[in-house]
Amino acid sequence: MSLLTEPRSETVDLGPAAALSCRECGQRYPLSPIFACTDCFGPLEIAYDLPTGQPEELRRRIEAGPNSIWRYAPLLPVPADVAGKPNLNPGGTPLVRADRLAAELGVTGELHVKDDSGNPTHSFKDRVVACAVEAARAFGFTTLSCSSTGNLAGAVGAAAARAGLRSCVFIPHDLEQAKVTAAAVYGGELVGIEGSYDDVNRFCSELIGDPAGEDWGFVNVNLRPYYAEGSKTLAYEICEQLGWRLPDQLVVPIASGSQLTKIDKALRELIALGLVEDKPYKIFGAQAEGCSPVSQAFKAGQDVIRPVRPATIAKSLAIGNPADGPYVLDIARRTGGAVEDVTDEQIVAAIKLLARTEGIFAETAGGVTVGVTRKLLEDGVLDPSLTTVVLNTGEGLKTLDAVSPTTSPTAVIRPDLDAFRAAGLG
Ligand SMILES: *Cc1c(COP(=O)(O)O)cnc(C)c1O
Ligand SMILES: [Zn+2]
What we know:
Blueprint: H1 2-5, E1 17-22, E2 28-29, E3 44-48, H2 55-63, E4 95-97, H3 99-105, E5 111-115, H4 125-139, E6 143-147, H5 151-163, E7 166-172, H6 177-184, E8 189-193, H7 197-208, E9 216-218, H8 224-229, H9 232-241, E10 249-253, H10 258-272, E11 282-288, H11 293-300, H12 325-335, E12 339-342, H13 344-358, H14 364-378, E13 388-392, H15 400-403, H16 417-422
Parallel strand pairs: 5-13, 6-7, 6-9, 7-8, 10-11, 10-13, 11-12
Antiparallel strand pairs: 1-2, 1-3, 4-5
The chain binds pyridoxal-5'-phosphate and zinc ion (ZN).
Pyridoxal-5'-phosphate (PLP) is lined by residues 123-125, 151, 253-259, 316-317, 363, 365, 393-394.
């Protein structure tokens, strides 16, 4: 287990990243490929030397940057010349003003969908992987690996191909065919594990301690502190696209809970840096009922997350033992938000609602956030008069099976007008 205790470098260039710091006890460590505190086993996160005191200058620097996550390089654990390296340049995805969806849901304030399906491998995972690649380069790893619920496998395969790294990724054996194909096509090694995502994850933790996995950068295990920071860019983009404004309410999907915790971290950073006005915001977490350990704990008023065995069509969110679950509970409670879940039927209905009203075809994770938004509005938990941002984190073509049984052509007819009229269309 030498990797876990001996930092391999004290002088890596990861831009403003200064150290690793324990979320529980605050113990600091030099930047290295470790993820847990040796004193208390708490998760490690990046501590920064951020450019304080010059908000106007920082804002100008960001606005003059590339139309990708690298415009926020001054706030990420990446070297300053990152944009010039071979990578997939994710981010810069649209914030869609969703007036027609708002009308159907009874929202009178501003409703926006942050549509992250247009990233290079069609999910938000390109953001986190791009940051992990920079850490892998800095620490000299030549193999990139991960445990994945599907989207991460494709994002790692593609990013490794572009960066000229080897990849070997692990997935549950029963994923959607589109996600398996969209990961295997990049030519890296793809291994199906007979078990759930949580089994895959446990296996990867074992592999890290074994000579077979030594010198591997697991983006969501030993590189997790660096990887996780990529999620901050979702929140930076949302605020910049709102004209450097905080939204009042955000609805965010939960798998491990990492993305939600980093969105909160990013919003607090923007306030601390003076890039947005200091005002309250609420963060709402969204899960599928068939894998809702965080939502169950929230609703029961408990602090402990009881692991579950996932059974839902929202496979990208199917993590039964979410590592950041307790922090998600803290954030939902501290900001005045909530955590809610929806059934598979409600997920499918929400995918179709978003497609019909806004022309956005979301994967099941987007059905979860839109479905939860609807439910929270109906229950009077979300305020319909405020500015609300709902995240769609993936592309509908990857989860066709979710909607294909209930979605078909209106009619199939001969190419003549009589047939057209006979079908009731003319
Ligand atoms: C991975 C993933 C998430 C969120 O993951 P966290 O582990 O909670 O950060 C959300 N949506 C999609 C589509 C994903 O693939
Ligand atoms: Zn600690």
